[in-house]
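Example 9 (inverse folding). The structure is encoded as follows.
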């Protein structure tokens, strides 16, 4: 049985990944930070194993890794999905807010990859799937820090793919457009209509759309794909 670890899996895109991988017969490990009720409900529904840890905290990530190893569940696939948004003019963002955003989106991705990559390299098999964003490719006004973190994730993906390709480990990232999750809960109906008007496929993305792309990158169907940035954006480029 293959095992996937999904960070930030209690809600949204991560939870959709947990449902899909469980449906496909994988052992699913779900990391989350706060939302015990959502995580418990997901575990009841999918049978996934829960690991509560803040991915921005390196010690917490290594403690999670040790617990996963102790239980014999070292993952074949790591999905670095945990993320938080940060809206506002760059010059007015409080540094602490920016630190939290970079800590989760960027350093969380690095922390988890550092913790779980060695066992993949040792086995000469594995896949890392990172969550970037269309904003990481084209940049967004009022989301400058977020765009910066997501652009760094693209760079990280491409560089690490080169470094570990010979070890049989693939590293790719997803670049979602606007996906209908809690992260976009602050959008008004008018905002959503304006965005949908500019999306070639004429709808917001669903968490399930991103989960299907993650499953593809995790599967043997993507055996010759590494260092790629796969858009899941309905054709929308921001
Ligand atoms: P979401 O619905 O807001 O869910 C975020 C998840 O991340 C939750 O499970 C949350 O757990 C977890 N999380 C947050 N901080 C964490 C931390 N420090 N450690 C561990 N878990 C943490 O977000 P989403 O829309 O599904 O987004 C998932 C990923 O896709 C993010 O990386 C996001 O940047 C990216 N993305 C999203 C969109 C979009 O339009 N939604 C577009 C492009 C990219 P708790 O609830 O327990 O805190």
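The amino acid assigned to each position is listed next.
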């Amino acid at each position: 049985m293959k095992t996937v670890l999904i960070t930030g899996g209690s809600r949204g895109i991560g939870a959709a990944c947990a449902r899909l991988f469980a449906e496909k017969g994988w052992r699913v490990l779900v990391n989350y930070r706060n939302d015990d009720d959502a995580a418990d409900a997901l575990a009841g529904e999918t049978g996934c194993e829960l690991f509560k840890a803040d991915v921005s905290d390196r010690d917490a990530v290594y403690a999670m890794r040790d617990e996963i190893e102790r239980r014999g569940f070292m993952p074949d696939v790591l999905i670095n999905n945990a993320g938080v948004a940060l809206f506002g003019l760059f010059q007015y963002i409080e540094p602490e807010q920016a630190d939290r955003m970079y800590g989760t989106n960027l350093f969380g991705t690095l922390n988890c990859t550092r913790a779980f990559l060695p066992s993949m390299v040792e086995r000469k098999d594995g896949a890392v799937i990172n969550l970037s964003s269309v904003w990481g490719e084209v940049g967004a006004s009022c989301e400058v820090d977020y765009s910066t973190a997501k652009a760094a994730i693209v760079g990280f993906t491409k560089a690490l793919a080169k470094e570990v390709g010979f070890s049989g480990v693939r590293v790719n990232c997803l670049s979602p457009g606007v996906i209908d999750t809690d992260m976009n809960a602050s959008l008004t109906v008018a905002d959503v209509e304006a965005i949908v008007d500019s999306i070639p496929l004429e709808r917001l993305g669903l968490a399930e759309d991103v989960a299907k792309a993650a499953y593809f990158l995790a599967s043997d169907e993507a055996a010759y794909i590494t260092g790629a940035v796969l858009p899941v954006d309905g054709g929308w480029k921001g």
